[in-house]
Amino acid sequence: MTRIPGTDLDIRPLVLGANTFGWTADEHDSHAILDAFLSAGGSLVDTADGYSHWAEGNVGGESETIIGSWLEKGGRRDDILIATKVATHPEFRGLSAENISAAVDASLARLHTDHIDLYYAHYDDDNQQIEDMAVAFDKLVKAGKVRWVGLSNFSVTREQKWLEVAEHEGLASPIALQPQYNLLHRADVEDPQGYGQLASEYNLALFPYFSLASGFLTGKYATRDDLHGVARESMMAAYLPDDEHEKAAFTVLDQLREIADDHGVEVTSVSLAWLMAKGVTAPIASARTVDQLGPLLAATDLTLSHDEVRALDAASKLFTRD
Questions:
Q1: 260-291 pLDDT, tens per residue?
Q2: What Rg do the C-alpha atoms of the chain give, in angstroms?
Q3: Which residue among 51, 119, 120, 202 is the active-site one?
Q4: CA distance 117 to 80
Q5: Residue 170 lies in a domain
Q6: 51 carries an active-site annotation
Q7: Domain total for the chain?
Q8: Which leading EC class covers this enzyme (predicted)?
Q9: What is the pLDDT of residues 108-154, one digit of tens each?
Q10: Comparing C-alpha atoms, which of 105, 244, 127 is closest to residue 184?
């Protein structure tokens, strides 16, 4: 188990990403995934008010609605921690105080709950002052609608300012950061002035998203051609902008497969175990079927040796300077 800094909560060190709910996983499958995750000792589920407005026929809020219907059918609210976010729902874009106040009420209604455990500012809003956003989130905590605050997709400078404002003004201070971090996207966290350093300095949780590089690091793909027609093709292709990166990315996969074979586990498990070895609080990973959940959970029981971590570091060295 892993303690979430700034709280009294211990979690199995894997966050279930719910971005698939209402997109690639229907309500029935999503409910089954939630049941299986909690039965396996998982507890923290991560969603956003905007998930999944990008899918054909969706309007935003589908993921929250599915989690809400699961809770309404008897889901164990006391056993689940819900993290959601504000800024990207088509009806609630941005981080003005008025928008934050309206968006949280809409999320609570969809989720069929009276509180959100961890509420993230999803994307920075350059039109807003950090001080105003920090006050708006503090009001939600004081009202009992939100227990803790998190930040995602802000610059390190803006996140640090939020932390300084909260400390100086006695406001609810963020306890968690959610940056992108995986074997093919390392620099943002590992840079000396990056998110990892900020988390260490302020004792914040790190819950990285795209932990599996949008699925590329599951090991399903042996060549660039294998990506054609896949739902997340464009997202995975972003990690392969040129021949140098493409070659390096598949070298990383080769190293992952070698280590996975040595441990008798799937590539997915090794990819996530590498993140855990790097000291993150818990990576976020999603599943569209219950079967896909197994390798995610297996990562929490897998400890990589120092040599294995070094081998993966070496294979992915190119991605420390992107």
A1: 999 999 999 999 999 999 999 999 999 999 99
A2: 19
A3: 51
A4: 9
A5: yes
A6: yes
A7: 1
A8: oxidoreductase
A9: 999 999 999 999 999 999 999 999 999 999 999 999 999 999 999 99
A10: 244
